[in-house]
Amino acid sequence: MSALEVVASGVECRTALKPCPAKMTSRLPGKGKNLSVSVALPIRKEVVTAWLIFGGDMLAAGRASAPHNILLVSKRNDLCLEARMTTIRNIARKAGRSAHGSLLLASGIAALGLGSAHAAPATPGSPPPVTRQPHASAPPRKPSQKIKGAEKHDMHAPEVLYVVGERNSYAAPDSGMGDKRPTAFLQQTQTTHVITHQTLADFDPQTMEDMAKYVPGVAIGNDFGGTQDALIKRGFGANDDGSILRDGIRMPIGRNYQGATAERVEILKGPASLFYGMQEPGGVINVITKAPNHRRWDGGFGTQWSSLGGGNGHFDVSGPASRDIAFRLIGEFRNENYWRNFGANRQTLVAPTLDWKHGRWDASISYEFAKYDNTLDRGAIFVGNNPISGPQKRLDESWTASFGDRHLLASQINFRMTPHDRFRLSGGYNHDDYHDRQADPSSYDPVTGILTRRYRSNGGTIRANGNIALDYIATHDLWGMRHEITAGVDYENRRQDQGLFYQSSNVGGFLPSDPVYGLLQPVGKVNAASSNLQQNIDSVSGYVKDNIHLTRQVTLSGGVRYQWFHIRYGSGIPFDLTTNAGYTKPLPFAAIVWQPLKTVSFYGDYSQSFGANLLSAGTVLQGGYKPTTGREFEVGARYDNGWLTGDLALYNIHKKNVLQSAGLDENGNNIQRLTGLAGSKGLEFSLTGNLSRHWSTIVAYAWTDARTLRDTPEDQGKQLIGVPKNSGSIYVTWHGTLPWKDTGMRAGGGVHLVGTRSATLTNSFQVPGYGTLDAFASWSFPHLLGRRVNLQVNAVNLLNQGYIVAPTGSAYRNSWGQGRTINVATSVVF
Q1: Cα torsion at 228, 231, 236, 237 (round to 10°)?
Q2: Which of 97, 72, 94, 96 is nearest to 83 (CA)?
Q3: What is the pLDDT of residue 280?
């Protein structure tokens, strides 16, 4: 019997763990006879739908008719599936280039926790997704040489079986955020949340702000008229805090979530400076994009139509260009109406990716171009605790917009030196040429009801980030203890160069109760004080972390980062250099994990953050400049039974030199200043995964007490802007197979609740809490016209609630939440 090697998700395994047998039988689709497989799944149940792609050489030679012991490997090195192939008959044979057969594992095996045998790929309009794994342990090896007959086949040559796992679950068994390598959920040293591919496919989020619905302790801050990501994590965060990454590359201000390219979203809570540099103490978010398919060519195309008018069209094609190279190309064009009484959002997206794998080496390079033109909506104006008008009619003009071109380049090279040691060189660069036009409110007279506005415009700003990192990732046994070591160095440059800033004089006569548009024209003069903003940050750091498995139940983790950065900042015509200084700080990390049971673990950690306070165009800093620092203590408990994961965390964060909004000056510039000390303490709970074979859920709750602890008497003890004390969500989904032509169906919905939030630094007024109801239904027809056809309907804010989603620190410019919107999507997979 020849050797048979199985490779899955870049992980090799040649030794099965103690078996736990469970019988199952399936069929090779369209290729004849039955395949009898005996499967053993040790330790836990994996909730997956798995496509087993059998190398064409093995099938074409007919050698699979002999018994083989094979190992199917999950992403976790300690989990293996052992199977024994007993019979394969009547497999199609071709000389030369061999046809690849595919086996879809059967459904309904309770001991295995497998998904439906006819389950559709999670993303309508795309092939079974291949997740980009920047922290994968090892690349798959090449398939064996093609043959013309079994008699010429080397009986001792290894044959390769590739396994693609598609998790049709809301729960993720691991995450790479905390360790730069996949770490099992129960063994993670900090709180992490993964918004899985299935969650993204079902609920179809449009922006990063939608992620707050599925993760506890995330709120929405000043999103600059609905044009920028502004997520507050555990009480801290802003639209320019640098906490959003794409494949590990820090992104600039703007919208950084693209549903067409996103595979999943991972969130690391608490200070993340150990591996991710200058960050807020609340956490960091990484959007992981789709990777090319090395096994076969496939793809899809589709459209989505909005009840508001317009929609988008998209395509996704991927496959092997050669034995070692795979390619993926994703494109999208979007043109849809804005949800209020006028406006439109337009975008053109093109994203090619190349992957290369050869022996111990693998590499990837990806590029993304986006041309965008989005509505900039200055939102609501408050008098006391009430807005002066509702969400139906806007208070600005049809020409308001943010527009520009964005380029993103990311690359990675991995070399596996030994089975236990590897090196990774990664880097990226993004460049955003940004412009905007604003109809900015300057004053409101509650007696006459007249709103005074002015034209303001950023005439052009270049926002660019670049970074490079070299990591050493190893696993070794020393003195009877397993050490998981991650060490590295990185360099980063963050640059913002703004040109001219335009502003007009104030123009009155606008009645919000009966708006007449066109009174304010997009014409203004150069505002010398707000022009020529230049900000440049260089950062160099070294870091190391060691997860030491003292026993099978106890893991002790320690690490440190030594951070240096230099900031140069100034603005104005003539140019006034206000900050030119460098700062250094060591950032220690310590954690312990205790897992007394197979399904339960407890953890505690201490971490620190350190970074630059960043300013943007149209902003004035009041007082002197200082970097911001933070620290967190955290304890928690986790549960994972293979179907359902739960997490409970308690934390306490202190942050010094917090950049806060303090209103507007006479020119409409956003005044910001540093508060002495702010604190956030809270409790977070999440429960995600499968309740049963047909029911899944997402439950999230957070209690957050975020306050200014030391500052002026007017601010001290007051709640931080935009942070609700209570927030939570609950979503439930049914999934199964309908009797008509094996049609797969998923349907679900839920509610997202957010409490009252303070709207200014002094808590002079509050914006009320809100609740939104969302729902979806999708159908997958596997054999319609010879192709898989998908249909999906998503409804957002079904009850059409009017609510403020993002207070800004001022009575002006508070963003309304999106009204009722229904999207209908169709797609074809080939």
Answers
A1: -30
A2: 72
A3: 84
- The answer to whether 81 and 15 have CB atoms below 8 angstroms apart is no
Secondary structure (DSSP) of 154-200: -TTS-EEEEEEEE--SS--SEESTTTSS-EEGGG-SS-EEEE-HHHH
CB 722 within 8 A of CB 769: no
* The pLDDT of residue 820: 97
Tokens of 825: 């999507």
Give the largest Cα separation in the chain, rounded. Answer: 95
Residue that has been written with the tokens 């603005």 in this structure: 571
Return the ∠ at Cα 110 (arms to 106 and 115), rounded to 5°.
45
**Phi and psi at residue 209, to the nearest 5°:** -60, -30
Tens-digit pLDDT profile for residues 637-691 = 999 998 999 999 999 999 998 776 666 666 666 677 777 899 999 999 999 999 9
Tokens of 809: 């620190």
What's the confidence (pLDDT) of residue 242?
82
Q: Indicate the burial class of 823 (C-beta count within 10 angstroms; 0-12, 13-18, 19 or more).
A: buried
pLDDT in the model for residue 676: 81
Q: What is the pLDDT of residues 340-379, one digit of tens each?
A: 999 999 999 999 999 999 999 999 999 999 999 999 999 9
Asked if 827 and 790 count as a contact pair (C-beta separation under 8 A), the reply is yes
The residue among 161, 13, 14 whose CA lies nearest residue 85 is: 161
| Neighbour-count burial for 495-506, b at 16+ CB within 10 Å, e otherwise | bbebebbbbbee
Burial 172-202 (b: 16+ CB within 10 A, else e): bbbbbbbbbbbbbbbbbbbbbbbbbbbbbbb
740: which DSSP letter? G
Q: What is the pLDDT of residue 256?
A: 87
Helices (H) and strands (E) in the chain, counts: 3, 50
- Tell me how far apart the alpha carbons of residues 250 and 410 are, in angstroms, rounded to a whole number: 11
Q: DSSP for 783-800, please give it.
A: EETTEEEEEEEEEESTT-
DSSP reduced 3-state for 756: coil
Nearest to 725 by CA among 666, 682, 695: 682
Residues lower than pLDDT 70 in the chain: 1-167, 615-624, 660-670
Give the CA angle between residues 587, 591, 593 to the nearest 5°.
Answer: 165
